[in-house]
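Re: folding output
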Amino acid sequence: MVDLTTKLVNILGDKTTKPLTSAFDMVVVGDLLRHYPRRYAELGKLTDLSRLEVGQHVTIMARVASVKNFSFGPGGKRTRTEVVVTDGTGHLTLTFFQQGWRLKSMEPDSLGLAAGVVSEFNRKLQLTHPDWEPIKETDDPTESSRLSRGIIPLYRATAKMPSWKIAQCVEMCLDAIGPVEDPLPPDIREARGFFDLAGSFEAIHRPRAAPDWQRGRDRFRFEEAFVVQTVFAQRRHLLEQERAAARPVVAGGLRDRFEQQLPFVLTEGQRTVVGEIGADLARTHPMHRLLQGEVGSGKTIVALLAMLQVVDAGAQAALLAPTEVLASQHYRAITAMLGDLAKGGMIGGADGATRVRLLTGSMGAKARNASLLDAASGEAGIVIGTHALIQDHVQFAELGLLVVDEQHRFGVEQRAALVDRAEVTPHVLVMTATPIPRTIAMSVFGDLEVSTLRELPAGRQPIQTTVVPAAERPAWLDRGWQRVREEVAKGRQAYVVVSRIGDAASHGEDSESETSSLVELHEELVGGALHGLRVGTLHGRMGPDDKDAAMNAFASGALDVLVATTVVEVGVDVPNATVMVIMDADRFGVSQLHQLRGRVGRGSEAGLCLLVTNSEPDSPARERLDAVASTTDGFELSRLDVELRREGDVLGARQSGVRSSLRLLSVVKDGDVIDDARAAADALVQEDPTLGSHAALAAAVEELERSEQADYLERT
């Protein structure tokens, strides 16, 4: 009996299966049937060639009039194939690059379907790299079983496995398959008017009318959301069964004393979030909360108040940071803010003070042993570190709270490593300075409650952002370096950020110039535009002592300019820095640029951010930079970022399990579907936490979790 787990080779044969496996990683029947059509061509609604408009997405049935290859580029090694087609009312050119084989596959007088976006070149309309599906003359469209349905599915395809060939393979599998188990329970399907799984495969692959494939697509979109949300619902259910020690606020404790000595008043948003977290910590159910906030919105203060609340209650807090630079920065900032409250057992320490310890992988043995001892004995109320905190030999007397900074850089398993090892389940607070649209938060961090800080603390200075097109206007870059000198002359400092340290760049065939490297740019600036200034460097390959020395020198004012890689992206706080020059800014993402920009304007003076680029004026890269320059609102930029990026990029590599499971669902656009699926998943898991009565759903959940686990193992 053929089912979704039957190997494709058993049905299609080895010759046909190989290109499907190599191009799309298809192995079993289910892989092929979940390769859904990208769009559909309706034979009764084909576009008239005489009525085409630029920018229009069209599907045409036409006959090849002529086909010709043209050579171009250095040595004539590149190929452009122009195929002129006609439907009797007009002509249209189909243009393909590096596909000279089409000279034989699209012979004159052959018939086919072409689908793509109409553009104009040399005053002639064309389709560039359109989908092309040949129609055999023996296949009379009025008699062909596939074409007679009137709607032709068009699949994501390759040269070796075109759309029509994939459609044939799908037909063979649909004809051969027997009963299939449906991951969507009957009551959930029926309440939404969905077909069962077999009917949905028929509807989406062999529709007889548009409502068929639309209904099938809606079902599979919901199913994708439902499986992901079931995973999160199970995680939340497990957390509900766990018990944590309540860590209520202690009146007059370190938290109250620290808040009273702050030289500023918390924003309304900070007070709200502090209240949410404080209430969570006071419960015997473990907190599991995501704190997202604008760059500079004061997340660290909020997290520190939470950590002190836990210390007051007799437990410890750990702060996990993704890099040594950020961990060291947190350590310096927190000990400075706490002052004598962080000098427990030391001369000058306040009554009831605690200790703050740093733990990183590259610390010297003496310092590391001291930190390990204080963590194990409980002397250190707060321990700050990198991945070194996750190691088995790190012990805490009583870990009450785990704070994870820049959550998107850690996997779920890494986060759980400390939690699972604790005798009493600790509360967990994860933070990100990259604002996340609500629908994405539900899909990527669905096991967390979400708190958001939107407003900036009083006194934060505005940041002017300017795109500097170095290739078009080199004088602008010269002026940029002059502005750096002017700021330094006023006693201020500047960052210069580069995308690479010193390796040869690899930019593909279209790149006309190399990106700036840290080593080369440092030498160039010291001997040229910034001659006479104190210019230092900071990058990830430096030893920990050298990193600390560079950062301390910049923070103390001993350096005027710091040329660095993105190690300064998050957490680095030097209020005297007012200028950020980002070289080859088009190499960075929107959120990364926003993070980097947030390093300036943190003191009493306004900030300046220069985005230096050699990208073309109308390119997508320039569009991204213009978007960053247009606003300093991180939440607005997050929305723009989502619009400009592909779905997989938005989810990120860390969520490759989720990403690979989403073929139709858009976490950007389908918020209503995700809401519906979340509610349905919660209700089902409350009734059947182990999915014992839903075997097909349990299998789908296991497969998704296995893909996430595989991703984690690859990264560790």
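--- second protein (sequence, then structure) ---
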Amino acid sequence: MPGVANLITELEGRLRPLEVEVGRAWWEFSTRTSEETDRRRQEAELRLREALSDRDTFAAVSDARQGAARGSLERRRLDVLFQQMQPNQLDADLRRRIVELETKVEGVYNTHRGEIDGERVNDNRIEEILLNSDDVDLRRKAWEASKSVGGAVAAMVLDLVRLRNEAARSLGYRDHYAMALALDDLDEDRLLATLDEVDAATAAPFAEWKGRLDAERAGRFGCAVGDLRPWHYDDPFFQEPPRVAGLDLDEHFAAADLESLTLRTYEGLGLDVRPVMEQSDLYSREGKSQHAFCIHIDREGDVRVLSNNVPNERWASTMLHEFGHAAYDRYIDVGLPFVLRAPSHMLATEAVAMLFGRRSRDPDWLAGVGGMSADRLERTRAVLAETQRGAGLVFARWALVVVQFERGLYHDPDADHDRRWWDLVERHQRIARPESRSGRAAGDGAVGSPDWAAKIHLAVAPVYYQNYLYGELMASQLDAALKACAGGVVNRVEAGKWLVEHVFRPGAAKRWDELVADATGEPLSARHFVAQVSV
């Protein structure tokens, strides 16, 4: 249909420079947050959303979808355009209010620093204390500093939730959560079933693993197991396992060049990420986002990573993770139409990133890339395996908290989320809430200790966290497929070729569920992940 082809080509041509502008503005805002970069990002975002809000064009795309053959490239392009445009069919004032509040909230996350005894501290300093200090009072102060951003943003985040719900309901959806899943090729019932499956499969092994961890923690800090609190663990959210006796990977990475390790990892698969490294921003400073991400600015190869590196195992894993995203982006078929020159789905690119992020605890990687001596590797092999298993269990239980919490956040923005958060943490992570975190003061309706709001994803990446959980499942499925076809992942050029051919090159031309089934020979399931963590 020539008319439909012209419609798609014209719309993609209109959106392309606007998306590039947004990418550049977001990068500048994240690396150098200021009033000026905030303003430029808002303006760029509003211009893109205004283009996506064109009602006549949206109506034409909607009509064309009905006549396009299912499974055709034309239908796929129309589906992706429809999913981008429908959330923007809003009143212009509501759209502007959402964008302004989103950028304001993200600016707070980028610039906020907690305080310990009056000293401003960044996230790396907080992590250092929680990793190394035996001073329980200092650990508690560090943990509380990590949560202080929650109090600074919680009211704004709740306002954002209400605005997003208002927008979704104006488009006929139950709430923003339901809309986000529906327009992201995700079925809510299937997601809930997956949560139940992961919960049931991991509850017992996690309880056994956590019981041994808690006995070790209580011994270290000279307290009863029942007196352990969040600051007795190494991560402020307990989304990563604590360091265990007999395995100090941070010591191994203390003198490591994380950039070189990352490059060697991907070169060993025949994948070139050096151009990404050359234009990335990898070290911490004031006014910069404290997190990590990868962004493909133009869908033509301008791929960049933001990180805040410190020579330790966490940031080694983070670099491998983010450059997994980068490798995916760089090897998408550039001959695809612009709108399809992206990962099949965010869960797919998260799966690739997680597949590589796991390498920092992989004996084959530590020997073949990380430079660990053979005798030390042999001494720590069993502990490495148990730590990798613990990492999977810890993350699965953490993901259950975030996904279930966020669904409730949009279902009822006025609920006592401070209490709900800790109810879920205690249930799934088996971490006792501090005595000060009982919820709101009775009847006053004010936010008490909104520790949930310290998790940046809930504000700036709404309804995204299920992609991490699905990504873990897919990463395990990819791992199994790569072992079968290439003998593994580390220094296997065949593995790199397989990923390029079966996962990267198709871009968004395939739906994620088709991609997984075609690449691995089976639909996505929790089977391989459960096998890895239940050993």
